[in-house]
Design a protein that fits this description.
Order of helices and strands: HHHEEHEHEEHEEHEEEHEHEH
Helix content: 25-40%
Strand order of the largest sheet: 7-6-5-8-11-12
Distance between the termini: 33 Å
Number of strands: 12
CATH superfamily of the largest domain: von Willebrand factor, type A domain
Largest sheet: 6 strands, mixed
CATH class of the largest domain: Alpha Beta
Structural class: alpha/beta
Shape: flat
């Protein structure tokens, strides 16, 4: 419903404001510490000492007490350790969504509009005359009664099939997305943290789908020497490993997941900062980090071509700008017929959001 909804104004106390400010900072620190609560609290304490985030009326000890009482932290009293609760993990995802995509209005429907009229949950703007075979729930009752009053008068009211009007409903589509995240060692090399923005994007995209497009599916996989799926609750704890980049294994797993999905629209988003450098052959790994190894590249391009045959477009988000790496991405994109974006870390979320929503308006035939 359009318009404004008013509610009673409740003043926020200084203590509530301090808690919220500290909580927002604490959530950010958890992203950088991969969910390590003790490390995040240590950083927060150091920041408090340096920048005076609290005062004598509300300190870090009070903040930790509130985190526990509000259900954000669970304490193992025997070992003296803190752990995140499911409520905290959801708060991290929501924070990522608001930070990257802005404050999105939640809806009760989870479908994506297409340009194809048909059966759906949401009425469109087009109205036409009723035709035999139209569903009764598509009738525009108000306009039909108005027609009848004009055509037959109010004194002897009657409603005929010539008075009936139908409001077109927009066909709704659902989409299955696999998000691939590169966790090879290069994602933290060269003094640049690339894994944290990638995690934030994954959490924001997951929260967007859960709230705005609940009929969609989102699977998240990570790839290094191998590839494996990760659950939603694991995202805050993702870390880079001492891995090479087995892009082929990631694509094989993504295709296997999407084969089992019954939705007509399927796609792969891949966040990476480098070229493929690894293949698994039996129980052995073939690795080569130097240049563009054609053995590794060709196997990866074969998977890109297979995805094209299966009508699975791949959108690659490249967060590195080395010319020879971009050369691989161009070849990969041409083989698949997908898209590629060369994004900075700051613009990664906006790129993915815009492309995700844009793709929702298309139907794979």
């Amino acid at each position: 419903m359009n318009g404004f909804r008013f509610s009673k104004y409740v003043a926020i106390s200084k203590q509530q404001a301090t808690f919220q400010n500290l909580f927002n900072l604490f959530i950010q620190l958890l992203n950088y510490t991969s969910g390590n609560v003790a490390e995040a609290l240590d950083w927060l304490t150091q920041l408090d000492r340096e920048h005076k985030l609290t005062d004598e009326t509300y300190g870090i000890g009070d903040f930790i007490y509130d985190l526990k009482s509000k259900g954000y932290l669970h304490e193992d009293t025997a070992k003296g350790n803190f752990f995140l609760t499911a409520k905290s993990e959801q708060a991290i995802r929501k924070n990522a969504l608001e930070e990257i995509f802005g404050k999105l209005k939640k809806t009760s429907k989870g479908d994506h509009k297409t340009t194809i009229p048909g059966t759906g949950d949401e009425s469109g703007a087009d109205v036409r005359n009723f035709e035999f075979g139209d569903a009764l729930d598509s009738l525009d009752i108000t306009s039909s009664i108005h027609n009848a009053q004009i055509n037959h008068g109010i004194d002897e009211f009657m409603l005929t099939d010539n008075d009936l009007l139908v409001r077109e409903k927009e066909h709704q589509s659902s989409t299955s997305t696999v998000l691939m995240i590169d966790i090879s060692h290069s994602m933290i090399l060269y003094g640049e943290d690339r894994i944290t923005p990638a995690k934030k994007v994954a959490m924001a995209l997951a929260e967007l789908i859960k709230t705005k497009y609940p009929k969609d599916t989102l699977d998240i996989i990570v790839f290094g020497n191998d590839a494996w799926p990760v659950e939603l609750k694991e995202l805050p704890y993702l870390q880079v490993g001492p891995y090479h980049t087995n892009t082929c294994a990631g694509l094989e797993l993504a295709v296997d997941i999407l084969r089992r999905r019954k939705t007509p629209n399927k796609q792969i988003f891949m966040i990476t900062d480098g070229k493929p450098t690894c293949l698994k052959e039996g129980n052995q790994y073939y690795k080569n980090s130097f240049g563009l190894d054609r053995k590794v590249i060709n196997k990866t391009l074969n998977m890109a071509a297979q995805c094209k045959r299966l009508k699975i477009p791949i959108t690659t988000f490249m967060i590195a700008r080395d010319p020879y790496l971009q050369q691989f991405v161009r070849e990969f994109t041409k083989t698949n017929g997908g898209r590629a974006f060369y994004s900075s870390l700051n613009g990664l979320g906006e790129f993915i959001f815009e492309d995700f929503v844009k793709n929702r308006k298309k139907t794979v035939r």
